[in-house]
Amino acid sequence: MVSNRINKTIYDESVFPHDHIELENLYKIITEFSIDWIYWLDPHNKLIYNSPSCRYITGYSKEDFFSDQSLLIKIIAPEDKRRFISHTRDVIRGKVFCSEEFRIITKDGQTKWIAHNCQAVYDDNNKYIGRYISNRDITDLKKAQEEVRSIDNQLSNICNEVKIGCCRISPSGKLISINKTLRMMLGYRSEEDIDKVNFERNTFLNIEEHNKYKLEAADGKIVKNITTACISNKGRILYFKETLIPVKDAKGELVYFDISLIDITKQQEAELSLLETETQKKNLEKLKTEFLATISHEIRTPINVILNLVQILKSDLASLDVDKEIIESTSIIDTETRRIQRTIGLILEMSQLAANNFDIHPEPVDLYKLIKELHAKYIDEARRKNIKFSVVNEADSPLVMVDKYSCLQIFTQLIDNAIKYTPEGEILILIAEHSGKISVEVKDTGVGIKREYIPYLFSTFSQEDNSYSRMFEGTGLGLAVVKKHCDLIDAVIEVESQKNEGSVFRVIFNKV
After folding, report:
1. Residue 200 Cα to chain centre, angstroms
2. Domain match, 305 and 437 both
3. What is the Cα–Cα distance from 75 to 114, expressed in whole angstroms?
4. Does residue 87 share a domain with residue 45?
5. Nearest to 259 by CA among 231, 289, 226, 290
6. Is 17 within a domain?
7. Can you give the pTM of this predicted structure?
8. Per residue in 400-437, is it b (16+ CB within 10 Å) or e — as a string?
9. 10-residue block means of pLDDT along the chain (512 residues)?
10. Residue 412 lies inside a defined structural domain of this protein
11. CATH of residue 288
12. Residues 250 and 292 in one domain
């Protein structure tokens, strides 16, 4: 029977004027229907009562606990055993009330959290008669707390990663509060160090601009994502994305500004470095273009003089009875001088293309007519090398809208290369029309190109054989110029080639 002392403790007898047995029955009804798992231990720690809720919380029945009283300890999770033993010692030493949270292992192997409340009970004569224990399942609560902690950790990690600093300043600019992140960013060891200086004036590099944003925010508008430059305590310039939030009282009076600052120093420094690099690159390209233009002019002038004199010399020698070797020497001078002239022309052309100093003027161009003009220009050179050189037009109307100069440069270089790299054989230029496109193929039976070299074919100064002993002259600029002009006029160039079997260069235009 439960003692009077227990009755007086739990119930007020003026409200419940029943005898002790009725009170015990009432208490039993309450505990039987409680969602908490409640049990009683006698003075010798023997289980004398166990509520049915034990099954819902532990999976074990009342009978399981009565048949194996050590089960109360066995179900404690191994990682919490030490804490449970410490709690038990406190009970044995006479601690009246204990409250702990433990993990238990249920009958089906689940891990659950319980809030364990344990209270010593005495009768009217102050005799210890046992302990009342109440266990509540708090697993869901623990999971929720864990999720909250996880979210807090994520937010904390995000804040640490993006370096979010916060401060609060008065309308006059006095610092009210500052978080540790911002304080450390600015290089202050403590808030006392900050109090020694005029924070706003010593922090914001452009204070006039900052005050302008404060006035804007004072009108009730949140000013977001403005780029702000600040100076640290050690004199380093830092860059932030700043947000200003005005806070007003119930009367609408401005009380203070909440400021958040996201560190973008590395990003800003990278952008400034990139901008500086781009400026230097443009200046370098300009200097290079100006240098090449000047050098080209200085070389072209004497070369033109030499060519004119050679022509006069050849004309004079033709009417005189001179040694054949002298006439051949003048021809060599003429050929090599023109080679230098072509090289200088390519260098100047490439420098203009690289510096984007080239203006495009689209106009209707008859490709067949343009190719025939180039054919007439190169036919004699092809004949001297015993090369059959022909043009075939299979297009109904080979008219395209392009820049004529670019078009001339493309096919001049392709025909020049075809003749240069074809010791003998045939060169065919085929004009065709298909699917609203006009294609011009320059086919030769020359030395061809290794398949692995084709991806590098249009690179500046690129040549398959860069050795001093190579068979053919050239700078490696011709095809680079071709590709640049194709890009300028939205033409596509394709290459098919095999070593020692010739090459096909195909240029595809949009039809008018």
Report:
1. 34
2. no
3. 11
4. yes
5. 226
6. no
7. 0.41
8. bebbeebbebbbbbbbbbbbbbbeeebbbbbbbeeeee
9. 38 42 62 85 89 92 92 93 86 84 94 92 85 91 85 63 79 87 87 78 88 88 89 88 90 90 86 78 71 71 83 80 78 78 71 70 93 93 92 93 92 92 93 92 92 81 45 62 90 92 94 80
10. yes
11. 1.10.287.130
12. no
- Nearest Cα to 442, choosing from 352, 367, 365? 367
Closest listed residue to residue 222, CA positions, set 242, 240, 241, 244: 244
Provide the domain limits for residue 284.
270-353
Tally helices (H) and strands (E) across the chain. Answer: 16, 17
Q: Which two tokens stand for residue 54?
A: 């034990």
Q: What is the dihedral of CA 205, 206, 211, 216, to 10 degrees?
A: -120
Where residue 40 sits, what CATH number does that domain have? 3.30.450.20
Domain shared by 91 and 139, yes or no: yes
Chain mean position to CA 147: 29
Asked if residue 481 belongs to a domain, the reply is yes
Q: Where are the beta strands (DSSP E) in 473-512?
A: 492-497, 503-510
d(CA 272, CA 264): 12
Domain harbouring 387, CATH code: 3.30.565.10
Give the domain-ending residue among 304, 333, 353.
353
> How many structural domains does the chain have?
4
Q: Which pairing describes strands 97-105 and 111-122: parallel, antiparallel, or unpaired?
A: antiparallel
Question: Which segments within 31-154 are labelled E, that is strand?
Answer: 37-41, 47-50, 97-105, 111-122, 128-137
Considering all CA atoms of the chain, what is the largest pairwise distance in Å, rounded to the nearest integer?
156
Contacts of 10 (CB under 8 A, 6+ apart): 27
Amino acid at 173: G
Beta-carbon count within 10 A of 240 CB: 24
User: Tokens representing 350?
Assistant: 């490439």
State phi, psi for 119 to the nearest 5 degrees. Answer: -135, 130
